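Sample intake sheet
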Amino acid sequence: MAEVYKNLIDGQWVESSSGEVYENRNPANWDEVIGIFQKSTREDVEAAVEAAQRAYRKWRLLPAPKRAEIIFKAAQMLVERKEDFARDETREMGKILPETRGDVQEAIDMSFFIAGEGRRLYGFTTPSELPLKFQMSIRIPMGVAAIITPWNFPMAIPSWKIIPALVAGNTVVFKPATDTPLSAYNFVKVLVEAGVPAGVVNLVTGSGAVVGESLITHPYVKVISFTGSSEVGKHIGSKGASLFKKVSLEMGGKNAQIVMDDANLELAVDGATWGGFGTTGQRCTATSRVIVHKKVYKKFLDMYVERVKKLRVGNGLDPNTDVGPLINESQLNKVLSYIEIGKSEGAKLLIGGHRLTGGEYDRGWFVAPTIFADVDPNMRIAQEEIFGPVVSVIPADSLEHAIEIANNSKYGLSSSIYTNDIKKAFIAIRDIYTGITYVNAPTIGAEVHLPFGGVNQTGNGHREGGHTVIDIFTEWKSVYIDFSGRLQRAQIDTDEIVKVE
């Protein structure tokens, strides 16, 4: 019988007040139940937020280097348990084991990196315009942070949010995706074992409609960090703004890889294959558009199709598998519907375009890696986020034309260009309007110590990763210390000659 996992509220593992649970199943084998998780209520959220609010009073006063030492210890524990956690993640999310190892490694990297910020959390000083006066800026924590994360990176993305929130002095209520609660449980359990005090981190599983909505509207929640769809992000942003909360949104992408006529085509094909079909295309940074110069268009397509034909689809725990299943039946149906849209729009289907059936495929949500060619940039399959193993290949006349096509999107997360011309590379860096640009690499592969995020409808201006993530979870306070012993009026007394003592 599958293990029953509980919520973490105020340091205690407890059942939901509803008494209801739900099953977490393997997308590669729907017959396998990974675990039983709590179907939480508004009352559970209330208890978790109140616990976090109480814990905040002491946690914020613990010196930041001491908070960071706990996180450093957690990172070391993640290293020790990496393989076990990766296997759990493959079972509940589906992507291949090398990728889930990378997911856990990203949580390790983020934890070590942000632990170092505990001895920085830099403010700055400036000279005053008045004598005998000192001024500086400092960061202060905000309070309770609501963390709402997706299923495609169920350990990495929570680490991007929870770790900096804690080091900055906030407390957390964490709502993971309903499809991947075990990875969330594993991550939170490590934090508890590393010494995070009761109430500082709370885990509440359940639906977005109940748990998520209760979190974003709770008056004690001061900051909301969300990664997910643009539709849900728009709702959270609007609701959070109406309640004067700080909201960080990281949402969709329709990322383009440009291949110029002077590119190393073998390398470009490798990039398009990994970027388009890694994680079964279920990344916000996935390479869903490939824009190819007309001079090498046919040659690139021939090479690309031959490369994708060799991809092996199956259970992510099988070392021979290159591409795992989609996360659930709903996502499977969405991807299949977009394939039909592509056909109806007149795009040329080169490979794939169907659900895989027979044998182990009948127990999971598998779609053949799919390439459409001769795609018009305004087709729906070139404009809308599919979040599956479907790539649109678009011809371009020139570098300028390719950049114009790349920028023809409501999103703006990631981009890449393959070229051996340094001038073209720097023009692309300058003119492509995205938060991330790669040169001679696919649109996926961000590292934790640089800012991560996008423009347009990809986000709302905040950046995760790097030291910039601290801005999400802190407020700035300016401090003025006047030791002149008399009233000094800024902007008024500056024209007078004042004796400096």
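Comment: The chain has a mean pLDDT of 97. Residues 273 and 308 are 7 Å apart (CA to CA).
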